[in-house]
């Protein structure tokens, strides 16, 4: 087990792939709201 093993975290880093052990990072979970949208919600 090491850099050549596809099933380990170190191997995934060396190969440059993702999977169950090393999932892709999502940038944003929630879409950010603009100030105009917030003002509309506050007025209602």
From TrEMBL:
Family matches, as InterPro entries: Ribosomal_bTHX, Ribosomal_bTHX/bTHXc/bTHXm
Biased composition (Basic residues): 1-12, 21-30
Record keyword Ribonucleoprotein present: yes
Gene Ontology CC terms: ribonucleoprotein complex; ribosome
Keyword check for Hydrolase: no
Keyword line: Ribonucleoprotein, Ribosomal protein
Positions of region (Disordered): 1-44
Family statement: Belongs to the bacterial ribosomal protein bTHX family.
Identification of the protein by name: 30S ribosomal protein THX
């Amino acid at each position: 087990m090491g850099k050549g093993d596809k099933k380990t975290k170190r191997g995934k880093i060396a190969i440059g792939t993702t999977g169950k052990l090393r999932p892709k990072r999502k940038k944003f979970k929630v879409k950010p709201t603009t100030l105009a949208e917030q003002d509309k919600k506050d007025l209602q």
